[in-house]
Amino acid sequence: MSRNNPLYEGKAKILYEGPEPGTIIQYFKDDTTAGNGEKHEVISGKGVLNNRISEYLLTALEEIGINTHFIKTLNMREQLVKAVEIIPIEVVVRNITAGSLAKRFGVDEGIVLPQPIIEYYLKSDKLNDPMVTREHITTFEWAIEEELEEIGRIALRVNDFLTGLFKSVKIRLVDFKLEFGRVYDEEGNIYILVADEISPDSCRLWDVETGQKLDKDLFRRNEGDIAKAYHEVARRLGIIDGDNNVIDEEKGNVQPITPVVKTNPSPITKNKNPKKDK
Ligand code: TMP
Fold first, then answer.
1. Which of 98, 181, 192, 258 is deepest in the core (most CB within 10 A)?
2. Does any ligand 1 atom lie closer than 6 A to the CB of residue 11?
């Protein structure tokens, strides 16, 4: 579907105003970037796969009581989501050394960590998403302490759940990135939701038996075909049928996911957000 007037266009997604107040349409592009946009390609079908994988994972989180911005999938490339105030922090959870952690500290990739590590990065293309501490986050009022507590609690719960879910399809969840948003009720209570997407663009996924990468590192490192890898992730999760055809938007060979009944989230704090009155 073609739409006019995006609210925001990012590297892999476009956001449009939703049909109801408080909703947004999130469109998944085929554009694939790495190195803060230095490497860029359009990979046919990637947006469709990420739309479905993210739908599947966010729905699974909702089913265990983790609140997300996801409302429903509209079509092959679009999701209806709740409009949230995005917290400008990327939260990375790591189970196994890889990527920037291995590079920064000069350690080998593939070492299982004794406990998950949570890292925070400021969402700023201009500054190249620098790593920040919790003190930076509260000092510069990107989030308050209570929100960080909630974010940490949710991130570890998501990690435990997704680790098990991927393990059941013989995939190791090496690390992943989450984004969070806040919504308010009439009394000014704040609710934290998992926002953005969870897909092989934002996770490191290794085959349990072969160690084969099934994520965006294939693109970042010129090591293989990400459409094929993402298709394999979707196939293993049971999201798409198993005939190994690359998803065809015309054929629409993707099964819809049954919507879940959502529970009411509880607020974490009341009238404490420093940004609320701005
Ligand atoms: P890193 O090792 O490059 O810091 O990445 C850690 C995880 O976060 C990895 O699963 C990929 C994901 N990630 C994103 O989703 N977006 C980003 O901009 C970056 C840098 C990482």
1. 192
2. no
